[in-house]
Design a protein that fits this description.
By secondary structure, the chain is of the alpha/beta class. It has twelve helices and eight strands. The chain has two domains: 2-121, Glutathione S-transferase Yfyf (Class Pi), Chain A, domain 2; 139-263, 3-Layer(aba) Sandwich (Rossmann fold), CATH 3.40.50.11810. The strands form two sheets. It has a four-stranded parallel β-sheet with strand order 2-1-3-4, sandwiched between helices. A four-stranded parallel β-sheet has the order 6-5-7-8, with helices on both faces.
Length: 286
């Protein structure tokens, strides 16, 4: 299986562990991720809040590159990138005035896009293309962990055919297939605060406190995530959360690719496990 791949800014910077584990798991499963040449930032939350048009054009440029190379689908790992690139497609197909502006901007940099490129999350690829049965058949070290899958608020928004916006289940299915005990909890698709952690920290800290708190109350040993920002907020701010709310959270937060990789027999160095703030060896025996 071969796909065009848009890594996004985080995977080349703050979340290199996500990138490394993504590539390692993809190799084991026979998935080739061909990185788009000359890609640019998708625009994400910051740009969108200032100019929806600019963020749409930035995302559309990446999809135009993919289309020019003959790709019909582009795979992403970041929930924000997933949402931004999909939204560009929605604008192009559903809003004639916005489509005209996007096309004009792309023409100014020598690009053209028909607006039909399909954007897919890596989680979708693993569950629906590779398949749960195939992945289960490659498990060498079943996960014997109680895991709370945290999808964040963007994976199902804008609404799409892949994941339910209120109660997603694909990661539950994937983790169960590799031997984990999936912990059900109500906060699996609630917002972690995202970039509010840099502007309205008190709001974001409370959101993260509620997510981690319910996961812990339900018996989870690990939280699994699909997004770099979610991982940073839930993992990197636990000391602040503990100080603010009088808790003693020590909850490891790992990318779903890292956990799947462990089950497939990959070692922690191959998956860049241990790069987070909360130690993982308290629950994962390497």
């Amino acid at each position: 299986m071969r796909y065009a791949y848009f890594p996004g800014c985080s995977n080349h910077a703050s979340s290199k562990d996500y990138e490394q584990s993504t590539q390692a798991v993809a190799r084991v499963l026979g998935v080739e991720l061909a990185e788009l040449p000359d890609w640019n930032c998708c625009g994400t939350t910051g740009v969108t809040s200032v100019s929806p048009l600019l963020s749409a054009v930035l995302s559309a440029r990446n999809l135009a590159i993919a289309e020019a190379q003959g790709w019909e689908e582009v795979v992403v790992t970041c929930n924000s990138c997933f949402g931004m690139l999909r939204r560009a497609g929605d604008y192009h197909r559903q809003d004639p005035a916005m489509r005209e502006k996007i096309d004009a901007a792309l023409a100014g940099v020598g690009k053209k896009w028909q607006g039909q490129t399909r954007v897919r999350h890596l989680l979708d690829i693993l569950v629906n293309d590779v398949g749960l049965e195939t992945i289960a058949g490659k498990v060498k070290r079943p996960l014997r962990l109680k895991i709370a899958p945290y999808y964040g608020c963007l994976l199902g928004r804008p609404r799409n055919e892949f994941e339910d916006s209120e109660y997603p289940e694909s990661m539950d299915q994937l983790l169960s297939a590799v031997g984990a005990e999936v912990v059900p909890y109500d906060h699996k698709a609630k917002c972690c605060g995202g970039a509010l952690m840099t502007t309205k920290e008190e709001v974001a800290l409370r959101l993260c406190y509620e997510i981690i708190g319910e996961a812990q109350d339900r018996g989870a040993q690990v939280i699994a995530v699909t997004c770099p920002m979610c991982q940073l907020n839930l993992d990197g701010y636990q000391n602040k959360i503990n100080a603010r709310f009088g808790t003693n959270f020590k909850m490891p937060v790992l990318y779903f690719t890292q956990l799947v990789g462990l089950a497939l027999g990959l070692r922690e160095r191959q998956l860049a496990i241990g790069k987070g703030f909360v130690p993982v060896k308290q629950v994962i025996n390497f």
